[in-house]
Design goal:
Shape of chain A: elongated
Number of strands of chain B: 0
Shape of chain B: globular
Strand content of chain A: 15-25%
Number of strands of chain A: 8
Order of helices and strands of chain B: HHHH
Number of helices of chain B: 4
Structural class of chain B: mainly alpha
Largest interface: A-B, 37 and 50 residues
Strand content of chain B: under 5%
Oligomer: heterodimer
């Protein structure tokens, strides 16, 4: 009832100063009421006019239906397109990864073969094959076996907003490239002779860095848990724990929830690093290819 | 009945022809849909109020769609397209809700 009175007031098309309030109170176009009152005054229009009106109404409704259908199709079509592109990329990535793994395996077998061939060839000439092997192990170009430690770092669980239940942006307990660098540097300092992070052997040219939110070791992405294996002296774990770095990481564990564990491991096998491609550096041709001065440093082992 | 039939014919046309929307027009599609829905719900409400008028309905549909498109276009040119689109959706949404409330009162007396 109140509606009707309101509407009859609205027939004299007042422009309400408060548009929003007016819209909330009476969302219907004032034109309808106006047209109704005009019809009431003048009677219905001619049949031709009414026929044209019906046709126009039908056209508008057809257009609305068309619009709805098109918009629906557009939305549905847009969805799988992005999903399809993503699936394609994922499949591509997996393919390439498998390919890379296969090539790596091939490289490993070929390297073994080269080593064997070289050893037999060198054995004939009487050269020091043991020294070559030792240098290769030092440089990280050959598999090594021995006792050592496993330092495992895990990202702290992502802090969750207690209200929304969604992950909040900042995670202080996340393992950074710097942490892996610090741990491996400390292991080298405590006498480690071979270090590998998640199966990637560290050499003198290995990089540990961050790209986006992923840590790359020698350009290969690795994810938490980060396992740093090191072959070294028997008390490597104790030495690591006693060091400043060890204390710092224990603090990270208690303060930020980072998972840190240092455990002694025996019978570790560390893989070989890929052959470094020397593209710019050339060996200096020395007159006498005899034993180099580093020999004495190596000989101690 | 006639109105529902016309609407269904429109949907059928859209499904059968499956027109591809040009890229330049894609941002206007959602806004145009909301504007059209506003006009349609206004029409239904007017029908139930027994004050429906063909001319008013057609004019409100055309002007709604055109003004909504114009606002989005203007917003895109000025770099505030998203905000203006939101504004259009809010205003039309409020009107749709109001009109649906009116329809509901007619149909369910509640």
């Amino acid at each position: 009832m109140t509606e009707d009175t309101e509407r009859s007031e609205g027939t004299e098309r007042r422009f309400a100063p408060d548009f929003l309030t007016e819209m909330f109170r009476n969302p219907l176009d004032a034109g309808y009421a106006e047209a109704a009152s005009r019809r009431a005054r003048q009677g219905p229009g001619s049949p031709r006019r009414r026929g044209a009106g019906r046709a126009a109404r039908a056209a508008v409704l057809v257009a609305t239906g068309f619009l709805l259908a098109v918009a629906y199709q557009q939305t549905v079509a847009a969805q799988p397109e992005s999903a399809r592109a993503r699936d394609g990329l994922v499949a591509d990535l997996k393919n390439r990864q498998a390919e890379a793994d296969q090539l790596q395996q091939q490289a490993n077998t070929l390297r073994d073969q080269v080593n064997r061939e070289r050893e037999t060839a060198l054995a004939d000439t009487g050269a020091d094959t043991r020294r070559i092997r030792e240098l290769e192990v030092r440089a990280g170009l050959d598999k090594v076996r021995g006792d050592g430690v496993l330092v495992q770092l895990t990202d702290a669980p992502q802090p969750v907003d207690p209200v929304t239940g969604q992950a909040t942006g900042k995670n202080d307990g996340q393992v950074l490239d710097r942490d892996l660098q610090d741990v491996s540097n400390e292991l080298w300092r405590e006498g480690a002779e071979a270090v590998a992070i998640n199966g990637e052997r560290l050499t003198s040219t290995t990089t540990i860095r961050t790209a986006g939110s992923t840590i790359l070791v020698d350009f290969k992405p690795i994810v938490s848990p980060y396992q740093i294996l090191a072959i070294g002296p028997d008390d490597l774990d104790k030495r690591f724990n006693a060091s400043d770095t060890g204390a710092r990481f224990r603090r990270y564990g208690t303060d930020f929830g980072m998972g840190v564990s240092v455990r002694k491991r025996s019978g570790l096998t560390l893989p070989a690093a890929p052959d470094p491609q020397l593209r710019f550096a050339r060996p200096v041709q020395s007159a006498s290819p005899g034993p180099s001065p580093t020999r004495s440093a190596l000989g101690g082992h | 009945m006639f109105a529902v039939l016309a609407l269904l014919v429109g949907v059928a046309l859209g499904v059968v022809f499956e027109p591809s929307v040009p890229l330049a027009l894609q941002p206007y599609l959602p806004i145009a849909v909301v504007a059209a829905l506003d006009a349609v719900f206004g029409g239904i409400r007017a029908k139930l109020d027994r004050i429906f008028d063909d001319k008013q309905f057609v004019v409100s549909f055309v002007s709604n769609v055109l003004v909504a498109a114009l606002i989005v276009y203007l917003g895109d040119q000025l770099g505030v397209g998203t905000q203006l689109s939101t504004g259009v959706v809010v205003v039309l949404g409020v009107r749709i809700f109001g009109n649906v409330a009116g329809i509901r009162r007619h149909l369910f007396r509640a």
